[in-house]
Amino acid sequence: MSDLRPGEIRLEGVSRKYRLLLERNQTLKEAILRRRRSIHREVWALRDVDLHIEPGHAVGVIGANGAGKSTMLKLLAGILPPNAGQVRTGGKVVSLLELGSGFHPDFTGRENVILNASIHGMSRQSVRARMDDIIAFSELEGFIDAPVRTYSSGMYMRLGFSVAAELDPDILLLDEVLAVGDEAFQSKCLSRIADFQRRGVTIVFVSHSQWAIQTVCDRAIWLSGGNVVSDGDPVKVLDDYHKGLATSMGADSGAAVVEEDHGWRSARIVSVTVSGDDGPTSRLLSGERCIVEVVYEVNEDVSPVTALTVRTVDGALIAGTDNRVAVDQRASERGFHRARFVLAQLPLMEGRFAIDVKLEADAGGFSFHEVERAVEFTVFSTGRGFGPVAILGDWDVAGIDRPDAGEALRA
Q1: Which tens digits make up the pLDDT trace of 318-370?
Q2: 405: helix, coil or strand?
Q3: Whole-prediction pTM value?
Q4: Architecture of the domain delimited by 255-380
Q5: What is the spatial distance between Cα 329 and Cα 115, in angstroms, rounded to a whole number?
Q6: What's the CATH number of domain 9-248, 3.40.50.300, 3.30.230.10, 3.30.360.10, 1.10.260.40?
């Protein structure tokens, strides 16, 4: 019997390795006659990890693919044993890990609710009593009696989370639970997770979403190479993680040379470069200095306007600007020229973005040359917030005398 309090978690010197096959016997005959063993190598998913989580805390686990996040959850769920060390959990553990885990593809959604809830220790009588609530939460009333093999990944997650939401765990393990589904259902999930937190349930939550980690968790852990690199306040850990990503991924050139169109006449774009504090790069941190440089060539007596449009890589418009009003900053002579746009603080949150560049006439909307997605870059966020745009500012909170309601409205 565990000596831990309900909801308490302890990992003591925990290691877990996998064997990856590099070459295998091609036939049964080859395996018997040649007695040749498959060639493999060992990969450590976790290495000597020590971790203590107090009851009632919500802990986010972040890291690149292969860092050991999902392995940690499987160890906590008891799905995998450690190769070394000890994993101890206090109380009832409920996990929502891989999509469709515990589901049978040929059973209906209703049958799988009974199966999945039974796996987590709920009696058939309790499942039937809560069936209507589970189905209502999942919003799958029209599909609940269809085989789950006909479900999309989002429908799988809806059904799985809806079952988990009706259980009474001491520890709840979630792996990318907000990665699928529409925004409305994600909000419902967050609301139910908040209910768990108010009840004192310990939550361990794996996600690549900074917004989800900051919304759900009061502590974050960064795993890399099977080791804990940073552990503490989510804002600080996310900051460490993104700075580490920017460094490890390297400072790519962040520059694109535009192929010459031999039919051009008045003006053409030659190259586009994105730079940070340390020079040209395609990896930037939110809030740092950013420079977009456009080199172009003028072949006639024109003074082209340089226009920039920032979009997500999916094409959603973020913002645009040009130097139309800065007449003294526009070229009026033939030859090569450089236009630079400087942002003292890059107002973008985490994501991948692209810049469209255009050279256009001062009036009439005529375009001399334009290049869509001239250059792409990745932004790593370093602060709290969500959405594509960073709202840069400072908070100030101070105690005041209680104002009269009318005065507060007039103010």
Answers
A1: 999 998 876 666 666 788 889 999 999 999 988 889 999 999 888 767 888 98
A2: helix
A3: 0.63
A4: Distorted Sandwich (2.70)
A5: 69
A6: 3.40.50.300
